[in-house]
Amino acid sequence: MSPTSNASASEGPLTSTAVSCPAKVLVAGGYLVLDREYTGLVFGLDARIHVAVEPVSTRSGVTISGIVVKSPQFRDAIWEYGYRSQEADAGIRVTHGHEQRISKNPFIETALIYALTYIGTLLPKKRIESSSIRILADQAYYSNPGAPRTPTSPGRFLDFNVQLRDAHKTGLGSSAALVTSFTAAVLSFYLPKTLFDLQSETGLRILHNLAQASHSYAQGKVGSGFDIASAVYGSCLYKRFSPQLLSSLPLPGSVGFASKLRALIEGDAWDTQIQKAAIKMPQGLRLVMCDVDCGSETPSMVKQVLAWRASNKEEAEQIWQDLQAGNEALAAELTRLATADQASGGGSEKYAKLGEIINNNRKLIRRMGLASRVPIEPPQQTQLLDYCSNLDGVIGGVVPGAGGFDAVVLLVEDKEEVIAWLKQSLSNYKVENDAADGSKIGKVGILGIREEMVGVKTEEQSLYNEWTTAS
Ligand SMILES: Nc1ncnc2c1ncn2[C@@H]1O[C@H](COP(=O)(O)OP(=O)(O)OP(=O)(O)O)[C@@H](O)[C@H]1O
Ligand SMILES: C[C@@](O)(CCOP(=O)(O)O)CC(=O)O
């Protein structure tokens, strides 16, 4: 059902709004999920990016509207935008503030253009008021050490005291969580509930489709969109949208962009499939993310794997099908354990099948990597995963997403002593960096996060008290 567009444009003053979205980890389905024939098993993680929007009191007589966006945990992270409606149904054009000295932020700028354009199609006669927007991110997204802003009463959001370009990402999908929170916060702020309600299924679908469209444009249309899906819906089994949906959309600023964008995100053509019920974390288990203090270039790995698949159809098809079966088996076993009678089975034998499925999937991932000559589970990561998998309480682990040297994700028993033992064992872990290509993994650390089933949610403004709009 589409929202009705005849709601009154004047439904009271704009009130401050805040929204947050979770990080992601693709536990199964890397590369496969780029193709609609296959699915990806994605878990949300409890590191969040928050976006808060507030009205700005404009002095009487001031006619220029503006939106100021700040990411105050980073140095010089402030972007000022003007905006105006364009002829020919081309949507909203965003301009930069005069004294803009700092680098552009394509994710923020695109999310703003898409969100304001959609709002403009719903409320064509209403002036878009000025606002002030703050972005606040949890520590786990970056490996830079943060410091409390007010040491006497340390809050949730730390001061990173570096420029954004010097932030070291940990690969948790910061741009997807940012774009989704930003879009949700801007829509919730400017639109009355009758037109956009984050608590409704329709609201979530519109947010998902709009955030996919703008994130994909800002990113250069490379990803499957699993990161946006988990930002909106939390942990889920994800089947991507047909790429033609976005390739047939006019570019922002071109004739017909606004109404085609609205029709696409509200209409029935959008064919993503999200199964939330297919993903569960059994009670007594949890995910642990390990950062290996090194990084890989996802786009070039994707290019190489897909090129190999295109010229080795038969061999690739077999691996893809076997991996899909293995990924489905993993989802099914997690669900079985989550719903099984807690009294049945006991001890670590109850997770034996889960461990076996994970190890079989890893064999297939290594085959994919060897065949395509892409280090998806390189020897250093195999060694690390084998080492961790042999520790008491660890069921198994994989290289998430595109793999490489970014991170590993472990499935472990949710017990303090297991985490303590894992930490101690990793602090003694000796990395054997003997890869022929010279790639190295650094010190292995545990990120203080775990799985999160909840996707987008509204938040209390009081969370940001120490990061006032003036910060
Ligand atoms: N706190 C923040 N404030 C403003 N912009 C941010 C913030 N965090 C991330 N970004 C934007 O997102 C970009 C990083 O997105 P990118 O897609 O490269 O990484 P990622 O989504 O974290 O990585 P991956 O998909 O590999 O997990 C930054 O260059 C910046 O533009
Ligand atoms: C390789 C791919 O399937 C997963 C990439 O995941 P990550 O960015 O490495 O977490 C690409 C995608 O689905 O967007």
TrEMBL record:
Domain of life assignment: Eukaryota
GO cellular component entries: peroxisome
Record's keyword annotation contains Magnesium: no
Catalytic reaction annotation: (R)-5-phosphomevalonate + ATP = (R)-5-diphosphomevalonate + ADP
GHMP kinase C-terminal domain boundaries: 353-418
UniProt keyword list: ATP-binding, Kinase, Lipid biosynthesis, Lipid metabolism, Nucleotide-binding, Steroid biosynthesis, Steroid metabolism, Sterol biosynthesis, Sterol metabolism, Transferase
Pfam name, any one: GHMP_kinases_C
Gene Ontology biological process terms from the UniProt entry: ergosterol biosynthetic process; farnesyl diphosphate biosynthetic process, mevalonate pathway; isopentenyl diphosphate biosynthetic process, mevalonate pathway
Enzyme class: transferase
Coiled-coil residue spans: none
Record domain GHMP kinase N-terminal: where: 168-234
Species assigned in the record: Dothidotthia symphoricarpi CBS 119687
Family in the record: Belongs to the GHMP kinase family. Mevalonate kinase subfamily.
Classification via PANTHER family: PHOSPHOMEVALONATE KINASE (PTHR31814:SF2), PTHR31814
Secretion signal span: none
EC number annotated for this UniProt entry: 2.7.4.2
Pathway named in the protein's UniProt entry: Isoprenoid biosynthesis; isopentenyl diphosphate biosynthesis via mevalonate pathway; isopentenyl diphosphate from (R)-mevalonate: step 2/3
Protein name: Phosphomevalonate kinase
Lineage of source species: Eukaryota, Fungi, Dikarya, Ascomycota, Pezizomycotina
GO MF, one annotated term: ATP binding
